[in-house]
Write a structure and sequence with these properties.
The structure is a homodimer. By secondary structure, chain A is α+β, with helices and mostly antiparallel strands. Chain A has three domains: about 220 residues, Bira Bifunctional Protein, Domain 2 (BirA Bifunctional Protein, domain 2), CATH 3.30.930.10; about 100 residues, 3-Layer(aba) Sandwich (Rossmann fold), CATH 3.40.50; about 70 residues, C-terminal domain of ProRS (Translation Initiation Factor IF3). Chain A has 15 helices and 25 strands. In chain A, strand 10 and strand 11 form a beta hairpin. Chain A starts with a helix and ends with a strand.
Chain lengths: ~475, ~475
Amino acid sequence: MSNKNDKAEQKAITKREDDYSEWYQDIVEQAELAEHSPVRGCMVIKPYGYAIWELMQKDLDKRFKAKEVQNAYFPLFIPQSFLTKEAQHVEGFAPELAVVTHAGGEKLDEPLVVRPTSETIIYATYSKWIQSYRDLPLLINQWANVVRWELRTRLFLRTTEFLWQEGHTVHATEDDAEDFTKQMLDVYKDFAEEIMALPVITGRKSDSEKFAGAVRTYCIEAMMQDGKALQSGTSHMLGQNFAKAFDVKFLDADGEEKYGWQTSWGVSTRLIGGLIMAHSDDKGLVLPPRLAPHQVVIVPISASEQEQEAVNGKALEIKDQLEEKGVRVKIDDRDMRPGPRFFEWEKKGVPVRIEIGPKDLAAGSVVAVRRDTADKATLTEEVLVDTVIDLLDQIQKDLFDKALNFRNENTVSATDYEEFKKVIEGHFVKTYWCGSADCEAEIKADTKATIRCIPFNQGEEMGKCVKCGKESDVQVIIAKAY
Amino acid sequence: MSNKNDKAEQKAITKREDDYSEWYQDIVEQAELAEHSPVRGCMVIKPYGYAIWELMQKDLDKRFKAKEVQNAYFPLFIPQSFLTKEAQHVEGFAPELAVVTHAGGEKLDEPLVVRPTSETIIYATYSKWIQSYRDLPLLINQWANVVRWELRTRLFLRTTEFLWQEGHTVHATEDDAEDFTKQMLDVYKDFAEEIMALPVITGRKSDSEKFAGAVRTYCIEAMMQDGKALQSGTSHMLGQNFAKAFDVKFLDADGEEKYGWQTSWGVSTRLIGGLIMAHSDDKGLVLPPRLAPHQVVIVPISASEQEQEAVNGKALEIKDQLEEKGVRVKIDDRDMRPGPRFFEWEKKGVPVRIEIGPKDLAAGSVVAVRRDTADKATLTEEVLVDTVIDLLDQIQKDLFDKALNFRNENTVSATDYEEFKKVIEGHFVKTYWCGSADCEAEIKADTKATIRCIPFNQGEEMGKCVKCGKESDVQVIIAKAY
């Protein structure tokens, strides 16, 4: 969309230090990832943003299938009465529901809720599917849209409608369910770290932060560049709460009828928000190569028609060579000066730019530029393909290391509440918590920070609850969050 | 789900000649493709049915991308006022709308319609995206769920919610738009014939059958085994109707501001219904290899534990060899007699079954059975992989040929109305139509049959309108339809 690009070119991206929130908005807009729709709170995911989502889906889907999870599809609508069957669940979701009251020109006998999540409608179905222990485990995932009526929305991070996947499993024993809940959390952790280049902390949510209806919620939490936390994925051990509400029972090998043990787990288009905020800089989006729709952009440069033919031919040749090795390549041979073309792909976060001009052609080389560091290198044709492939791996690794260093540098400890209040802004605070919901609520009221998670990785030592000073062996990460 | 299988085993599939409609339902149920949900008119697509949809999506998506179409995502909700902007469009869809009136605990100022199709919300967005002729063509597709409130539903064929893709493009000239409309129809035709093994007739809809808001609707029509037609995909030339309603304008190269020319096109999970009805038989589902989640099922057979180890080992070996060549293989080594296992995969339409028993093992061969013809062959290990791959190609081709022969045998002509009424049941009738909406309406009132399409492939001759006898050069296909 050429006109838009010309306009975008003129508009500078706000600097992070000037206004972090504006910076985020500018990147979403100028990298053409998404925009607000005419429907309040809903977003339009633009082609470039959607291409990132497709790459995420493809990788996650493969990981789910490796766990023997099958995809299926359940209805968008949920009878209102279903939602009320699990008391905590309806309490958690009631304020956010969108409700269909009329259809086909008539008022409905029972209003239908647009799914905010699908535990209820799926488990009502599971109760018919499962009879025997031989039907277990039942491992199903769905890729779908869900709706939660949000008052304050931000593109990708919090929107009324969003895209996600939700896995829903049933197991014969508590141990099996607990084990699978953690296996799926590991899938999310591996995906975040290996594919998104996003280091995450794994752990358990406090009771007040857990999923409405779950026994335990496990999560991956990532640090953004403003030191705030982004909950990036959750895996819930549901126990038998929903099984009892929806009569998910099976005849066990011992001849006894038992309730199933259930899990659910999900990640959403919110991950794209996390991806943007983890790596991007004041020049625009920075994408890890594994999620870049174009991993390499080739920009041929010429001053005459004759030169143009030669450099474009070489660009095509290089593209073919790289694509043969599985690299995603885009040629930008638009009839524009090189500057605006460089600038556009920089804003869009393409990991490696290759420039080919007549002089390069004569020398049998090209210039390759890294998006993340701006490092330039002249590469001869012989080493080009291998070097670019190595470079992509290096960028992937460097982005992860950079984000990890950033998190380490911005994770602090606090032993008393005054110290805590001084450092909570812009940091993960590693400290102790007595386990009381009152302490947790007071911390939140005073600072807007929340217990992000109780990390799996607990130390041996004891400490004092940062709020009340009571002795405790429970270490927590507290931070402000998106 | 073992128990279900045991039950299904006991239940016979209704014969086509006894009750075609029951036969269809039985296959959907016993092949575990889908089921009715607790929400009226909505279906649950079960894992095996969804796996077929995933294969369809993957192939179609590749074809769209080859046409430079990009995926994106637009909101589920449409402000009611948007729908009313194109007069014919709202008239066509108003009776089928589901409406959200309350959200977040409050009554909405303006009700939101759950998208029945997305022309309006997408084109409201396009009007902001497009400024110049350089922004064209704009070629976008979305994979999404849509809702149309249907009173009488049938799994896959007509459901309140269904999954589909909808492409929406904008072009600078009428010719470009017309050309693209037809290109996408060809994509659908190729997909139906090459992948679904489903021969289709391409042509134009009459005005009364066209999409609400379109200038012209092109379609692919397929014959089911009861001689009825299934509209399997449509591609609409929208002209400037929506562009004018939603202000989709661009500054052309000549400096003039012009309205864009638009197209939209879609296929849905209804295709799965067509796939079932085109090829299946009284034993169950028959799948063309290109859409079979498992193209080959290997059933190892043994009488002792020692035998079991040996045949299972061989099964695994063959699976690896076939998968290396890109064949999708399932081993069914469940501890059950062979009969019920054969029976299950027969019902589920797996194209080739390979049986391995101790005698086969000793002879260095296996038995391969075609699902479509029940032909058995003994294959030695040396030729196994190549023969199976050839066999899959042959089955794909034979299913297409069989469906084409069936259509040819059941396509008849009629020169007068009495003759027409005698043959319309169970046939495509090739005849002439004067072009009057009255004749068309009377035919429908008398016989429930409709003009399925005005085929592109028109003869040279003239004929008489089957209803009024008026001389005409317009040949049409008339049939009852799903």
